[in-house]
Design a protein that fits this description.
3 domains, Rossmann fold, about 30% helix, D-amino Acid Aminotransferase, Chain A, domain 1, homotrimer, Dna Ligase, domain 1, 12 helices, about 350 residues, four-stranded parallel β-sheet, five-stranded antiparallel β-sheet, alpha+beta
Chain lengths: ~350, ~350, ~350
């Protein structure tokens, strides 16, 4: 276990993605809170009274500098990783940051790398979309995605080789990719998108289903308001840039399978990437017309959809009987494991 | 009145649909709680600490066995019916189950039977969609529905006789129906779907508007993300399988009519199916472009959309000034009528 | 400053739009509450126990009569304006109503008048949609809007001069407009609609971001469920009548710009329409695929989308650490400024 003093722990994260929720939750559990904040965003974060300490940086790159890491360690911080960490740094860099991470920092590589990601989902025996290896095999609606967590930017749909080649050309011209090797092709799964928020507690060896959302993406979630006649008159190519999230609850008869998927994922993660996945994660996919969940992505850390539930979700209310955001759930786990001298179970 | 002891009442329901919300609400009102749980779902329901007693069954069919019913009665249970009861049993069977039901068990037949359902909606003077009696009269967009509460499965849209015949053929091949007599045709109402959650308290003779939602259905709510060009290239036939629910609030100027509809429905139910409709019900329809609500279905019991509001809805907050889910509202009504020795007003 | 006694203040509004939320919030802050209620809606509003006093009127027109205004003044009321005030009265009439208004009554004219509205948005340096001055310049998807706050009624999309002329002819025939001068044309902005709820406190000179929603409009938000094939077979012309609102949260990295926009708007309002915009306002627009917010409207007072957050929103929870609706926020501001003898800063 890393050298963590057991008193005066401070919860720390990067100022973006879900940092407000995370630090609000930490404060609700009586932790000190610390935000690593880009100068340009100081005006935003200074407004929130639950942030005790703001470490101003020119850019998040500073996380990679040793003196900065030592400063964080001296403050006795536990660092909560989220999507901005993954989109800002390479897995190699993330593993080298010498600060105690909540959760398994080594599994973040499996989120960022397309091949490892698929390997873990298959090992967990989740239903995944058919991968199309050769662009000549595109014979139905498919979706083309970029590697990494770019928040849906650059995704496009294709239905044959020509439409694929066209889309690639555009992305290269935009400088988003350098060749078609930077993308991968999946069968487009017909159904409704759902993001499932989980928390795994190693202490109790329990998976908790905390809530669900659907993303609100621009401009794909706007084309619904344009009638087909107009769509065909003007050229529509949807983009998938995440703007926000919309809350939802699931049909109760789906919950049994929701829990099974979460447990299968936890088991596979323990096997392939020890110590597994303590803390929050998310399975991201589509419910098809027969109620099957096809997982097309996972996040191996807290997702931004949980920002909906700062006041608790219907599901966390039923598990805890009080307002429990994912950020607060993380803080609760830290508090309890610390009082049991088992922080080593949840930190890397 | 059925033989209910007035002390140590236990609230009981089938483990599905909205059972978590119902038993959570019962526990919040200090009742003991009892879940009739299929063995395969034990792993789900054992997680929730507000469930005091779990009665394991191989299948819900066991509800129809006398010894099982006697066991439930001995436990002094009040049984809360929901959608799974209706989709699992015939109205005849439901009426025979010898256990005290919350609400009017006899009205559940009117929900399950298409003809009775229409009769009650018409008697309540609700605006209903035009029914198409003859498939040769299909001259605009229409929706074809199956009898019973199958959660939207099997619904399809048609625009002429040919498209109707094709759809029927498919459902017969799938084994979903045996002939076209198993379906009915309604004019497709253009507008936005809304589900209105009501509670009627016989004690105060008051209708309460508790909240609203819209369903999230697969794959019909996914096609919005596929541009018209791609939709026309690949064959799209939407299906209406309920996956979840999304919260919403209504324009305040619509509430007056919302209450009027609820009250008309309660009056018609009292007249046609004594004792009427104590407890929760739902009017399900579409708001057209001029703000008129066209009711295409009702549920004569709690609906799953209320699962959104485990923490209370904006509307229940304004009525009660505290977190009041529909499940808790039911429990509150039982508690109060029991303390007034008037359980006979709400049980059948 | 108008003649307000500092004790026994009563909060008053018109019975529609967001009046329930406003008076509930006032009651939570221990104010007396007063509703100006059309007789036909008495049955709705009498249900809510937080309404202390109901002033019945035949129509809201009565607000324009001196004796009625004196009655309100005698009750020591502060009047909270909302959308129904703006759609019921002309700006001239609104300015003449001799009752103390919360907020700046003079800015309501800038909301109602298309030209002034655009002027204020431009002065605030918000991104606005390209205005099309000449119908012959329509060369892409455009939206045609009516002046005033009619809740989206009458809006239609066009893609060339012919489709514009057709749409105008229909609105004239319906009696909605008298000539094409009653409409204005904007480029249709591709993206996802979002409404941003702000509160500006002159006391602390702070903008607060309180929440976000998207509208649920009939029938435009229903066409998403009709496949393109069927849409093309039946003639679809979407309408934009607001039926309700759906909650959402924003990507955290957008919040910085959200606050900047709010602050720019407050500064421009202070300059162009003293005393500016104390209290709630809303920026209404679309997030494009690159995450830019294009503002197409503003509301210079509380919007109905805040009705979603009677129990508080994720954002108000993070600012206040308790359930804080926009209605309650207004009441809080009145309470605090009153105790500081600074009501003149927030009343006109």
């Amino acid at each position: 276990m890393r050298n963590i003093k057991l008193k005066n722990l401070e919860i720390c994260t990067l100022g973006s993605h879900c940092s407000l929720q995370v630090l609000k939750g930490a404060k609700d559990e009586n932790f000190s809170t610390c935000l690593i904040c880009e100068k340009k965003r100081y005006d935003l974060y200074k407004r929130y009274s639950f942030i005790d300490r703001i470490l101003l940086v020119d850019s998040f790159e500073q996380m990679l500098e040793k003196p900065f890491q030592q400063r964080i360690k001296k403050l006795n911080c536990i660092f909560i990783p989220h999507g901005t960490l993954i989109s800002s740094f390479s897995p190699d860099d993330i593993e080298k940051i010498d600060v105690p991470f909540f959760g398994n920092r080594y599994i973040l590589r499996w989120e960022a790398d397309r091949i490892l990601k698929e390997k873990l989902m298959v090992a967990a025996k989740l239903n995944v979309p058919r991968a199309i290896r050769d662009k000549n095999d595109i014979d139905r609606l498919c979706i083309v995605k970029l590697h990494g967590a770019a928040g849906g930017r650059g995704y496009f749909t294709v239905w044959d080789r020509n439409s694929f080649d066209e889309g690639i050309k555009k992305l290269i011209n935009l400088g988003s990719i350098s060749s078609e090797k930077d993308v991968y092709i999946q069968e487009y799964v017909h159904g409704v998108p759902v993001f499932l928020h989980y928390f795994y507690s190693p202490l109790c060896n329990e998976v908790e289903f905390m809530g669900a959302d659907r993303r609100y993406e621009s401009d794909v979630d706007g084309i619904a308001r344009i009638p087909s006649k107009q769509q065909l008159n003007v050229n529509i190519e949807p983009t998938y840039n995440v703007i926000g999230n919309i809350p939802l609850v699931l049909r109760e008869s789906l919950l049994e399978e929701v829990y099974k998927m979460g447990e299968k994922f936890v088991r596979a993660a323990k096997k392939l990437v020890p110590p597994g996945i303590p803390g929050p994660f998310c399975l991201e996919g589509v419910y098809t017309k027969d109620g099957t969940f096809i997982t097309f992505e996972f996040s191996a850390r807290i997702v931004a959809g949980t920002n909906l539930y700062v006041n608790g979700s219907p599901y966390s209310e039923m598990l805890f009987g009080k307002e429990m955001s994912m950020g607060r759930r993380i803080a609760t786990e830290i508090r309890i494991t610390n009082s049991n001298n088992q922080l080593n179970k949840i930190l890397t």
